[in-house]
Amino acid sequence: MAGVGIPTWDPETAVLIGTILLEAIVLYAGYGGLERLFGPYLMRLLVGGEESAR
Is residue 33 within 8 Å of 41, Cβ to Cβ? Predict the structure, then answer.
């Protein structure tokens, strides 16, 4: 019978999954912070030209 057994976790796999999850959280927060800092300036620059960005 396939699929009856309970899978066991390899500690290295758990660490890898945790590392990837932590990296995703850090990148999400980091890019969100950059967007808050530079987003309005870049939108003014892209939409209104260089004169309106100052």
Answer: no
